């Protein structure tokens, strides 16, 4: 973490460059955050790295918010690498901080609205459908009994995903109602999505498309050793030049969510139809960076600081 920034230093920073807070994961170093910080500082920004859990609402502060390193004042911009896991109350407070920053005129990438839409897979899937985007048939219900009734009525295999989760953690397949997990394993909410590949498929791949500021930055094929294709789970990243259909679908998915930047996962069903699988508002890009010539952190930093400067100029 950086040392606190004094009010005098903040005033000087205003003259030389924007004051930025970079929110990172609790209790861990972040390969992505280190590169973002370096790229922002190379453009003259003063960057304070902290966590949302360390922030507070405080009516004794001029801004009403206590952001570590800002002496009760507001940053010019906030870049969110992580909200971190926590209780419902903790997550609500952290998202509240992000909402408050936006309401105070601070440019937040991505802001709480986009994060909330992405992290809740059911909301993201709904918004994709509402925007007319192809997405796998999905049903989300409460209670094991309702989930069992759905799978009993539809004999096709399903993919079950945690409502809140990423990197392929907790994802499983179910071929019948008796294969569903216990309620306590999924918070008694069942996100059920048709398994799209053919039963005899031996090639397991999908596509990650990285979008920033309304344009495509880079993409890759994720080729898995099993049907789970997350790089975090051992899939191989392969350089890829997306076709026009992929580019348009990814851009439309990000627009439907209202995100400044995002990683969009695309997949083809057994008939070859392209669909939006998921979207991530705090995407990792270490795997993608290994197969692209574009400096993703540098480009994100430039896009973000341009947005901060635009707000400050108003």
General description of the model:
By secondary structure, the chain is of the alpha+beta class. It has 10 helices and 15 strands. Mean pLDDT is 89; it is low at 1-15. It starts with 6 loop residues before the first helix and ends with a helix. Helix 2 packs across helix 10 (296-312) and helix 4 (112-119) crosses helix 5 (121-130).
Describe this protein with a few key phrases.
314 residues; alpha+beta; 5-stranded antiparallel beta sheet; 4-stranded parallel beta sheet; 10 helices; 15 strands; 33% helix; 25% strand; globular
Cα-to-Cα separation, first versus last residue: 31 Å
Oligomeric category? single chain
Mean pLDDT: 89
The Cα radius of gyration reads: 21 Å
Poorly predicted regions are 1-15
Report the total helices: 10
Would you tell me the structural class of the helices and strands? alpha+beta
Q: How would you describe the shape?
A: globular
Number of strands: 15
Largest sheet: 5 strands, antiparallel
What share of the residues lie within helices? Answer: 25-40%
* Proportion of residues in β-strands: 15-25%
Strand order of the largest sheet: 13-12-11-14-15
Order of secondary-structure elements:
HEHEEEEHEHHEHEEHEEEEHEEHH
